[in-house]
Every structure is written in structure tokens, then in C-alpha cells.
């Protein structure tokens, strides 16, 4: 599912970030660990096709993302990758259900109301379907963000610091939820975090 070799990246005026070679098999659950500022989020964004790498090999689902244009990366991400960002970035003017329907539309999928309802039910937030984003809690919004990430049955599910601001009980719940949703859709799961509470949940670990 994922192959990284000789990968590095830099932002204008910043130091070069060199990443270790790494392989994540299809259907595997893996974690990227490291202190804040070490390049975890950057690596997740590279894997997610949000930007092209400066140098090196980066293959996702057999596709070499290092050779794709920005427009091509956008299309590939919409068809193959679901991302749970640190902040939900939900559309506040839309309802919970409409946010998931929008994700279907942007992912070049047919909008399917029944599928949206099924995802909301599995996440335990069916009763929130018609509420606007400002009418739900932060924890509920996080579940909506997970639902948006898995609605199109991605091959790869990425989560950036999903437990950083959570207590121990909710930390465990969110990791279990991500795992169950990845297994439900047959996706490979990669979590980037500095939260060592979840380290033991993943056998495949990349430490930066």
C-alpha cells in the first residue's frame, strides 16, 4: 500500500527533512511517531497527496505520487485517500449529513443517502444528522470528520494527531473507532502522533 524510499522534503528557507525508508502493507495499521515539529504532519500530507515531495520515491496503492502533478494528486486523493485532520475543518453552514454528502460529491462518487446514514449509525451519531456543525460538540465533530474520511471507502485512511487533546478513555475510543472504520472499509490505516499512549496499538511503527 505504501512505499517510501529516499524521501525528503523542505519548505522555502527551512531545513531539509529526510525520511527513513518505510513500507506499509495493504490492510495494515501503522503509526508515525515523533516530537512536535519533526515532520510527522508533513509526511502525512505527502502520503495524502496534499503536496508533491521534493525528492525520493513515494508510492501509494502502487502509484508513484512523486511523478504526479498537483491536479493529478487532487484526483488521486479524492478517489483513494481519506484524511482525518487535527482540526475537523467541517463546513459549518451545512448539516452533519450534508458534510458527508459533500465528501461523496467531491470524491467523484455518486451521492448515496443510505450510505451516509449507515456511516452515521456506525459512528453512533445518527441523531446528529440534521444538526449544523456549530450545534454539536468537539468530540461529535471528530466523529463526523472520521465519517467524512471513510464515506468513499478509501484504500488509505490517514489520521493526524487524532488523540492529542483527549483524556485516556476517549483516546482509546478514538483509536478503536479509527481501526474499526478502517477494517469496515478495507482501508490501510496510518496515524501520525506524538501521543505515546497509543504506541502499543500499532506493530508497524516509524519513529522520526
Based on CA atoms alone, the radius of gyration comes out at 17 Å
CATH topology, what is it called? Rossmann fold
Estimated structural class: alpha/beta
Helix content: 25-40%
Counting copies of identical and different chains, the oligomeric state is single chain
Low-confidence runs: none
The DSSP helix count reads 6
Mass-distribution shape: globular
Number of separate structural domains: 1
What is the β-strand count? Answer: 10
The CATH superfamily is: P-loop containing nucleotide triphosphate hydrolases
Main sheet overview: 5 strands, antiparallel
> What is the CATH-assigned architecture?
3-Layer(aba) Sandwich
N-to-C order of helices and strands:
EEEEHEEHEHHHEHEE
CATH class: Alpha Beta
Mean pLDDT metric: 90
Distance between the termini: 20 Å
How much beta, percentage-wise?
Answer: 15-25%
Compact overview of the structure:
With 208 residues, the chain is α/β, with parallel strands linked by helices. The chain is built from six helices and ten strands; from the N terminus they run E-E-E-E-H-E-E-H-E-H-H-H-E-H-E-E.
Note the topology:
Elements: E1 2-9, E2 17-18, E3 22-24, E4 29-33, H1 40-47, E5 55-60, E6 63-64, H2 70-80, E7 81-84, H3 96-106, H4 113-122, H5 138-150, E8 156-160, H6 168-185, E9 188-193, E10 204-207
Parallel strand pairs: 4-9, 4-10, 7-8, 8-9
Antiparallel strand pairs: 1-2, 1-3, 1-5, 5-6
Helix pairs in contact: 3-5, 5-6
Amino acid at each position: 500500500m505504501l512505499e517510501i524510499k529516499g524521501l525528503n522534503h523542505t519548505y522555502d528557507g527551512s531545513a531539509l527533512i529526510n525520511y527513513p525508508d518505510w513500507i506499509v502493507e495493504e490492510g495494515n495499521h501503522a503509526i508515525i511517531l515523533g516530537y512536535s515539529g519533526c515532520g510527522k504532519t508533513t509526511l502525512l500530507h505527502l502520503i495524502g497527496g496534499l503536496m508533491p515531495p521534493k525528492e525520493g520515491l513515494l508510492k501509494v496503492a502502487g502509484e508513484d505520487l512523486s511523478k504526479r502533478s498537483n491536479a493529478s494528486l487532487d484526483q488521486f486523493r479524492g478517489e483513494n485517500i481519506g484524511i482525518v485532520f487535527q482540526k475537523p475543518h467541517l463546513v459549518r453552514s451545512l448539516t452533519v449529513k450534508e458534510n458527508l454528502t459533500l465528501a461523496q460529491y467531491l470524491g467523484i462518487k455518486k451521492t448515496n443517502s443510505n450510505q451516509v446514514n449507515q456511516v452515521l449509525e456506525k459512528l453512533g451519531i445518527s441523531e446528529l444528522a440534521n444538526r449544523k456543525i456549530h450545534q454539536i460538540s468537539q468530540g461529535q465533530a471528530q466523529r463526523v470528520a472520521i465519517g467524512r474520511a471513510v464515506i468513499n471507502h478509501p484504500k488509505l485512511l490517514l489520521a493526524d494527531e487524532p488523540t492529542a487533546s483527549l483524556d485516556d478513555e476517549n483516546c482509546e475510543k478514538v483509536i478503536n473507532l479509527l481501526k474499526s472504520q478502517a477494517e469496515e472499509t478495507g482501508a490501510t490505516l496510518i496515524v501520525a502522533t506524538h501521543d505515546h499512549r497509543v504506541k502499543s496499538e500499532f506493530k508497524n511503527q516509524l519513529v522520526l
